[in-house]
Amino acid sequence: xxxSELWHYKDLLLRFVRRDLIANYQQTxxxxxxxxxxxxxxxxxxxxxxxxxxxxxxxxxxxxxxxxPGVIIWTFFSECLNGTMYTFxxxxxxxxxxxxxxxxxxxxxxxxxxxxxxxxxxxxxxxxVFHLFAYHDVNPSILPMLLLLxxxxxxxxxxxxxxxxxxxxxxxxxxxxxxxxxxxxxxxMYAAPIVYPVSMVPEKYRFLCxxxxxxxxxxxxxxxxxxxxxxxxxxxxxxxxxVSLLLLAGMVLFKKREVQVMDxx
Length: 265
What we know:
With 265 residues, the chain is mainly α. The chain contains twelve helices and no strands.
């Protein structure tokens, strides 16, 4: 895999990013406002269903503040995965006409989703600062926050990209995989502590919950922003290692099979 070739096509990458950002909100009434509305509405629904009706505990954190980062992180991961897993199917008309490193396309999706994620983080920071000064119900750890936040973003992006690259090779060959994968993705959301804390998981299943790469990301986020509790470093390192291997495997398989997949399509 020639990484220098990717750098040579950086201008094309930026063009794809710009295309994705513009295309997402064209022909919509509210336009980019949906970037803020989507996590807010989802958080409000979770607050009503899991907070008020199901009475799910949030470890003493304000429910709205508890759900919002989980929603933002999950949306970032799922959008990266959904965008990259259809790389071949959605770009056949381009791939068949001109040569450029095919990896540029999934990378552009992750970059554009990272921009969207960054904007949604600004929304979270606004809500966080309001709670910090108005209610004094959060206990942030400033230094871990500054050091770990970029790592958490990278792990989430790499998890979505690596998974998407692997799946893209198979969805191009087996079209009916789409139905199964969308169903499994919805189930997978409940395997991550988005609407519940890890402390609610029975002790005998908790280790399995921590093996989900998103669990250390979300729990670490909550620890450094809300509770000031020690970070589960061992699980965070396992997440980093597993996601790194997944990303490497995805990039190698994608590069190895890209020509064969285009012949099939």
